[in-house]
Specification:
This protein has 18 helices and 18 strands. With 395 residues, it is of the alpha/beta class. A hairpin with a 6-residue loop joins strand 3 and strand 4. The chain is globular and about 60 Å long. The N terminus is likely disordered.
Length: 395
């Protein structure tokens, strides 16, 4: 007798995953669009809604999703007042790219390429040369940065074209490999306080007739991970970010466009077994798996040789109603990592890729105790994670 449909649920269709807007409205399209407007050779204005400016500033706030601004107008009155300016006055967000995580997104911003090309397609991914998991945010274990990500950054191309180019961020990030491969070019200026960064960013914008300046604030993301996006600590950080954005906007020199954006949004996940599936305690999910990469809402699963199809089948059976579960080739064909995946990047992607649709995580309590304890999480293709602002102030 055939099983009824409720006894044999269908896994989520892969084409139901909301793809990032690669090529027209993703983070990877922002700097090429701005650079094209300043006459940098070889760049294309992919985000057609934006109007060129002689001076451009990108203020990237880690973890400041579009949905978070809309949900907290009281804590962020200045940012909320700019919602209608987003994406060239259309009042629409842009998309982060998959996965919606810091290393992938910052590399997309800086190189103007989606993850399948720049090669940072997750929080942790397998290094095909060593077989080890590599944390691409902390660059551990170390590997040669330019071998891992060989493309020039838009900052380097702009600097070579005579645009005054600068990054203003925490001194902690000046010499990190991620900064080198994603954000280098022109001059790095390290400043400890947010106020100092805003003031110096404004000064750097005025330092050239054509200028491209990037500045960054990380602590909102940290508060969300530790306490959640509805915590008092997170709300306090959002209030501070709002004041920083207004401080910078009020100092912009003439002929400037300021864009406030983010690398991803964030979602709080309850601490229950239903919402936090523990890979380390689940024999079905562990069967045939050599390495577990990615993060809780965007997993790369690396199978032992010959077990890829079995792992895919098992993960779909266990998780298929809550996660989009794809083979490597299916995820690539669906365009999750962009329209093209470089050959050197192919084996960095998991044999199985799992992206959360519901309010759920795949934690690894023994292998990843710190990450497994996070309240706020991100990585997948849902609106709360994927949609980021592109708020605009012009002078």
């Amino acid at each position: 007798m055939a099983l009824s449909t409720w006894d044999d649920p269908e896994p989520l269709a892969l084409d139901s995953a909301p793809l990032p807007e690669y090529g027209s409205g993703s983070l990877a399209d922002l700097l090429p669009t701005l650079a094209a407007g300043m006459g940098v050779p070889g760049q294309t204005a992919a985000i057609t809604e934006l109007t060129p400016a002689d001076r451009n500033c990108v203020f990237l706030v880690d973890g400041l999703g579009w949905e978070q601004i809309k949900a907290h107008p009281g804590e962020a009155p200045f940012l909320a007042s700019l919602l209608s300016s987003s994406r060239g006055g259309t009042g629409r967000p842009i998309t982060a790219g998959y996965p919606a995580t810091t290393a992938a997104s910052l590399a997309s911003v800086g190189t103007g390429l989606p993850p399948g090309a720049h090669g940072l397609p997750g929080y942790t991914v397998r290094n095909p040369a060593t077989g080890e998991l590599m944390n691409q945010l902390r660059w551990n274990p170390w590997t040669e940065p330019r071998a891992w990500q060989p493309y020039p950054t838009i900052f380097q191309l702009a600097d070579a074209a005579g645009v005054h180019t600068a990054q203003v961020s925490s001194p902690t990030f000046e010499h990190t490999p991620l900064t080198k491969v994603a954000l280098s070019g022109g001059r790095f200026h390290g400043r400890l306080t947010g106020e100092d960064r805003m003031d110096l960013a404004a000064e750097q914008l005025a330092a050239g007739d054509r200028a491209l300046v990037y500045t960054y604030y990380a602590e909102l993301d940290g508060a969300g991970h530790r306490f959640g996006v509805d915590s008092d600590t997170w709300r306090g950080q959002l209030m501070y970010v709002d004041r920083l954005a207004q401080r910078l906007a009020e100092q912009l020199p003439p002929r400037t466009a300021l864009y406030v954006t983010a690398d991803h949004g964030m979602i709080d996940i309850p601490f229950t077994e239903e919402h936090r599936i523990d890979f380390d305690a689940d024999w079905e999910l562990r069967a045939g798996v050599a390495l577990l990469g990615g993060e809780g809402r965007a997993r790369h699963v690396y199978a032992v040789p010959g077990a890829g199809n079995d792992v895919l089948t098992c993960w779909r059976e266990v998780l298929g109603e809550q996660f989009w579960v794809a083979s490597r080739d299916e995820a690539i064909a669906a365009g999750w990592f962009g329209p093209h995946v470089d050959e050197r990047v192919y084996a960095r992607i998991g044999d199985v890729v799992a992206a959360a649709r519901d309010d759920v995580l795949i934690i690894a309590s023994e292998q990843e105790p710190r990450e497994s304890a996070m309240v706020g999480n991100h990585g997948s293709m849902t609106a709360v994670e994927q949609l980021v602002p592109l708020l605009e102030v012009r002078t």
